[in-house]
Structures are given as C-alpha cells and as structure tokens.
Design brief:
By secondary structure, this protein is of the alpha+beta class. Helix content is about 35%, strand content about 25%. Strands 2, 6, 7, 8, 9, 12, 13, 14, 15 and 17 form a ten-stranded mixed sheet that branches. A three-stranded antiparallel sheet has the order 3-4-5, covered by helices on one side. Bound molecules: adenosine-5'-diphosphate and magnesium ion.
Amino acid sequence: TVVQRTTVQHEVPRYIGSDKDRVRVVVRVRPMSEREYDESRKPQKVLHCVNENSIIFDGGQHSRRFTFDSVFNEASSQDEVFQYCGIKRLVDMAIEGYITTCFAYGQTGSGKTHTMIGAQGASIFRMDEQYRVEHLGIVPRSINYLFQRLRDKTLQSSSPYYIRVSYCEIYNEQIRDLIRPANPDALQVRGSIEDGFYVENLYQTYIETIDELLTILEEGELNRAMASHKLNDTSSRSHALLSIQIEQDVQESDDPNEQMTRQGKLIFVDLAGSEKVKLSHSKGKQLVETNNINKSLLTLGTCISALSDPSKRSGHIPYRESKLTRLLAESLGGHGITLMIACISPSRLCENESMNTLRYANRAKNIENEPVVKTDSKENVINRLKLEVRKLKDENNQL
Ligand code: ADP
Ligand code: MG
C-alpha cells in the first residue's frame, strides 16, 4: 500500500508576492497498535487512504470521503512525511522572514510526538545513528534542513543569520519554560493582535550549531516528560511550543541607526490530545485542569471554525480567550504561513475521535492567511545584544 507521490509540492510556491495563503492541512494515519489488533479481534479499520490526497472514513452506517493537501498512510516513512508534508516550504519562508507554524493535532496516542520528534519521543536522540536516520521526526529533520539552507544562503548573502530559540509548554493555562524549567517567573503572555503576542521572560538563547539546537530539543522533551511523570501524564494535556527565530540584519539605509532586522520564525506545536475528557469523572483540581485544557483547545476550535467560515471570518475571532490562541494568532488568519498535521489511528476503537479530527482538519483547510514579512528596528539588535550578555552571564555562573 505504498502511495506513489508525484509532486514535490513545496517547490511550487503558490502565493509568494500575492496576498492569500491557505492553511495547508495534511493527515497522517498511523499503523494499528497491537492492542488495537487484539481488542478488535479481527483488525477492523475505519479509515482507508485511497490516494495521496484522499481518505475514506467508513463507519458502517455511513461513509465519507475527505480530501487534503496530502494524506500519509500506515506505510509512510518519517522521511516521506518530511519530504512531502510541506514543511520544507515553511523553513524556506521562515528564512525569508515569514512567521511559519507547523502544528500536530489529534487524540492522545495518535502519533503527534512520533511525527514531530520521532519514534520513542525524547529517547530517539540516544539511539544509534542508523535508527535515528530512519526514525527522527519532522522537527529534527527541519532543523537539519534549516542549517543546510542557511549554509547555502550565507554564501550568497552579505549579512549573517542569527538563530534564537525558546521552548515552552502550556499546561493548565500556565506557561512552563522547557529550556529553563526552574524559571520561577509566572510567565505571562503580553502583546496585542496588531503587534503580535509573546511570552514575557521566557528564556531565549542564541544558538550557533545544529547540535546546540538538538540538545535544546532533547532536554526540552525530557523536561516535558519529567513534569508529566510527576503530575500524572500531563504531556497528553499540555501544548508544547518550540520557536526558532531566524534573524538577519537588512541594511536599507546607510545610516546605522536605521538598520532593520528581518525576523522570520519557525514554530512547532505539539498540541494536547484532542479527545473529549469525561467531565463527570473529574473532581476538584482535576476539574479545573480539564476545564483549562479545554479552554485552550476549545478556543482553538472556535477560532478555526470562525476563520473557516467566510461569513464570520472578518468578525471577532476570540484569540484572546486562551494562551494558546494568543500565541498562535499570527498563524491562524494572521500574517503567517501554517501547516497542520492531523494524526489519526485507523482503528474502529477510535472511530469517534478520528471522525472529530477529520472534521476539524477539514475546517482548517478553509483558513486563509495573508503572509507578510515584517522588519524590525534597531531596537531588536540591541535586545539581541542584551540577550547575548545574559547568556554569557549564565555561562559564567555555571562555571
Ligand atoms: P501522541 O503524541 O499523539 O500521544 P505518540 O506519538 O506518542 O502519540 O504515539 C503513540 C504510540 O504509537 C507510540 O508508541 C508511537 O511510537 C506509535 N506510533 C505513532 N505513530 C506511528 C507511526 N507512524 N508508525 C509507527 N508507530 C507509530
Ligand atoms: Mg505526545
């Protein structure tokens, strides 16, 4: 059941220079797990990938066909997903100065972390070379591609690129720093729809090599898992946001005071599990938790619904109602470029959640962004220097 892929879609930049860019949506169906085989006695699939763009949901009484920018079936490899999902275009556009976002959506166990980070989650980084080459997910592959592109580009360009990274997790409507988990500050989201939202006091660091960035990714994943272990598997209920900012000074005037910085961004979001949490089983702290998690995911759903409906699109979009949607405002109906990867299990045991995921993904297809490159003033160059000083101080303190 290997699907022949005929086009390398990222090489056809659909909209550069024009004003609209539809959110790109791809679906990945993971193989049935042993448990799913066992529990359904004979393997019963409700999902069938028919070609590289379509998938049929066959729930017995009703069946429905969905079409997406790409559909990856159970046999798709990590490399195939990376090559054809459209992420390379996002990396290229981030280098050009756009804000780009790739997010993984789906119920717990559907393959989000597998697709983003790799088989085995954070442990992938400690596997041998051969295993890693085959099983690494989209994020490390994109990092590799980014550095490859920058090496090519830097040759042609006079001013260097700077890469600034932050990594955080939204759990229970609270933001945790995944690079500096001991960061005691109560991290708040600041900013506005017009100027963009950001997390105040979130640790950011400039990195120079692939290895530095991969180490941050690995440690961040471990920090996420550790916190999750303490708090009874919160990772399925938290959203992780890795932000890779790519900066380049562009001299638009001879006056150094008017020097501008272009700031592209590549954001990877591993969303919380989309399954419905049964509220009747939740009491006390647990109840607050599910409500809050619902708040971020529900608000995301509300925003996606509104943005995908032409009659509501220009009206009020409730970005402000959750931390996640504030941070993703630029990516959904904003000035960014966005890719959504919906992950699903083909098993009959998951049919309701899978149907929900397909409907959600189907709606997201209609969202339009208006990508623009933003350049920023010299102030950012100064901020960068301040950060570098902070980094040096940190390193000194660690000695
Ligand atoms: P999620 O992050 O959505 O909760 P995971 O990525 O942790 O789900 O996946 C759940 C399990 O299924 C893991 O054991 C993972 O290795 C396995 N899995 C997910 N997707 C695939 C795939 N495409 N091929 C093989 N195994 C997969
Ligand atoms: Mg996960």
